[in-house]
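User: Modeling request: complex.
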Amino acid sequence: MIELENVAYGYGAKGDAPLLRDLSLTLAPGSFHFLTGPSGAGKTTFLKLCYGALKPTQGQLRLFGDDVAAMPRDGIALVRRRIGVVHQDCKFLDHLPVIDNIALPLTVSGQVMEDQQGNLDDLLTWVGLGARAHAFPPELSGGERQRAALARALILSPEVILADEPTGNVDWEMSQRLLHLLIALNGMGKTVMIATHDLMLIRAAKAQVQARVLRLSGGVLQAAGADL
Amino acid sequence: MNALSALRPDPGADRVVPPSGFTARLVVFTAAAMAFLAVFTLALALAAGRLAEEWDSALARSATLRISAPEEQMPEQTRTALTLLQQTPGVESARALRDEEQRALLEPWFGPDLPVADLPVPRLIEIEETRDGFDPDGLRLRLQAEVPGAVLDTHDRWRRPLIEAAGRLRLLGWVAIALIGAVTAAMVTLAARAALAANAQVIAVLRLVGATDAYIAGAFVRRFTLRTLTGAAVGTGLGALAVALLPSGGEAGGFLTDLRFAGWHWVLPVLFPPLAALVAWAATRSAARRVLSGLS
Ligand SMILES: Nc1ncnc2c1ncn2[C@@H]1O[C@H](COP(=O)(O)OP(=O)(O)OP(=O)(O)O)[C@@H](O)[C@H]1O
Ligand SMILES: [Mg+2]
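Assistant: Request completed. Predicted assembly structure:
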């Protein structure tokens, strides 16, 4: 559950006009949201607020009921284990093979990888990386990186999934598979938010799931037009 | 995370930070060199200490005042000297030897029938010093003024500056060991900060997947603590071996051939590796905490 109340955020000095303002939104459990808007509108910034990487410069943001402003860094680390994030730039630990990167959330939360081996294998097969499990991240294609990032975001079975352009580098067929996975996860009660430019993807999704489409532009959040 | 848990292996955490061959070897080498130096300095400090104690206990804490004066002035000068000695700081007691005691002293030289009373033998005053001793030059000056016939004999007092020097050498040894510890801490801090800075990307990824600061710091702390422990153990071992192999001088041995560890003193170098590890643990932990709270 992620709740924003009149949240504003700006990267610059206090006096500057903020990049984002008057954001009020609740990501209720089980909801499915798309976030769209022109490049540079602040979609990635919005998602960073949602997983505690940035703190609002104004307003109140609650993650699972706790105010982010008062949260210590360890509290944010714990929140991250409940929110699976697929980042736009998909950063990995380049010295570890793909399988260890995908298992990284397990490792850092002190879980034993062997206990989750079944999950891990299923997940790898599902995102089509079974054969690349022991490759290193720099050896992956853009699409493979994105699929690995999705697998890493899902390994802890998070309650919320935030995906930033998850289909940016994959072909149409793969983007449909990723979408189906996200819809299936939403069907299991997980909250999903996808930031994307891909209007085709949004249209395809709306045919299958009850999704709200939000548009960021001029720093404010609006409901998208009826064409979506 | 406490110092002992820093030694417990955590294969997961050890792998998330990429291996850093060069810094690792540098830390091991520096820790080894520092431990080696510390062992030698310790041997030096202990030897200096032993020497100071030996000389100090051998030093007789007594002196003799000899008064030669015409017979009629003798009682007067003796009395003045005794009063003066009683007022001198550092003098525990002063006592004029009785005639029969003086005779017993002279007997080996002049035979049993020596008429001490008739001879112009000097009067002897036995002085017992306190632990700190008195200032012989000051006492001599005052005696000169008030007891013209007095000569102060301070036995092996010439050793006193040597004892002081040996004590000072021991102190310097311990200061040097403390400095070696501080240098080790500084070196580990630098290496840890360099490693943390070089791994900013890794730290960012770890945070994104929900690693706490304690977990991230732990991965670095464990690594540096173990390296320092390894290096210090090797350095201490080599240093102790080198000290043990120093030729012993036996009876004729002076300070140089006394450079060794005796008895329970062997415990001290054995403490170096764990102490070095403790220093590394504290240094890395504070460096990691500082760097991690700076990286948002
Ligand atoms: N760390 C930062 N410091 C300063 N400005 C930033 C920072 N990150 C992003 N910005 C700026 O904030 C604005 C919004 O960036 P953001 O990445 O949120 O956009 P976006 O909507 O995700 O764009 P895209 O669709 O291209 O991914 C951009 O103008 C960007 O230059
Ligand atoms: Mg973006």
